[in-house]
Protein: MYND-type domain-containing protein
Amino acid sequence: MAPKKGELTEEEKELVQVISKGNVQDAAQLLGSKEVRVNCLDEHGMTPLMHSAYKGKEDMCKLLLQHGADVNCNEHEHGYTALMFACLSGNKDIVWMMLEAGADTDAVNSVGRTAAQMAAFVGQHDCVTVINNFFPREKLDYYTKPQGLSKEPKLPVKLAGPLHKIITTTNLHPVKIIFLIQENPLLLDQEALKKCSTVLDLICEKCMKQKDMNEVLAMKMHYISCILQKCTTFLHEGEDKLDPLIKSLLKGRDSDCFPVFQEKFIRESIRKFPFCEATLLQQLVRSIAPVEIGSDPTAFSVLTQAITGQVGFVTAEFCTTCGEKGADKRCSVCKLVMYCDQNCQKLHWFTHKKVCKTLKDKREKTRAGSCQREEKAGKVVGERGERHRVNLGR
Structure:
């Protein structure tokens, strides 16, 4: 018999309270009771999973899903789902967990908003990015099985996991994607990269030819495929690792350290998108083509905004080397360039050192100018105040 709204047993009421406190052990004990239904509904139609997602309790969500919680229960009085509550919490790891559990991204609430639209409405843009970049593992696993008359799968099973990690990344910086390739020795092989690239091209084509066309996902698959092809070329030319490719992507011109090769590579990758009539391609070209190389917006910034909904390198919180968001380490000399860790700083130093002192001098000059303006403004205010006191004394 399906649970009814508000008809909770005493144990189920206790479970809701335990969830609020975040005590996973007590919750596990209660879920083992026959008196507790994992999909029970409170008076508003909220399940324990919805409560956990809304409160940002990651371990609790995992426990409830293990006990068979329905990720797509839609009995809430306003049509909210667990994925929507996860978006409201702002916890992108819980959003990812809901998606992996099969959450429906197209479900709408009583005002017609999807989970992604709700996340955007309340400013949880990281959650929007996670939803927009999610690609179910089973869709990739399709290529690990022989299809049609072919006796061999297009993608070896051992490559599915590493490739899925790359596909679902929300950081599209080419250096970051190469980092992900380097993390797994299985991918540091020409044939492996070729197979992965071929599968990405097939997914790209499928996205464009299916009934519900997905230009954003198609562009992302094509772009990652271009990076994998570039890695293949480097390995083919006798390199046993991808460090030279990373250096070429990071190398900046002498005048301002702008990474010209990286900019040209991203522009060329976009230009090679095989579906010329795609609206997204035309939008990208219109945004990038008139911009002189070295000026804003960069190709990476435009591409990132189109695919993830976030603007790359607009604020100083992105790593200069790999584009990772949340970088909190500054160059100790110029204090203007940001990195996510010491490794990224070391990788970038070979090119940054050419302009580091110049940036430092520029920063100090700007600071001195600001101090002079503030001092001048203070004197003006003081003089006005003195005149005002004199006038009052008359």
Remarks:
- The first strand starts at residue 329 and ends at 330.
- DSSP finds 19 helices and two strands in the chain.
- Residues 137-246 form one domain.
- The CA atoms of residues 116 and 131 lie 7 Å apart.
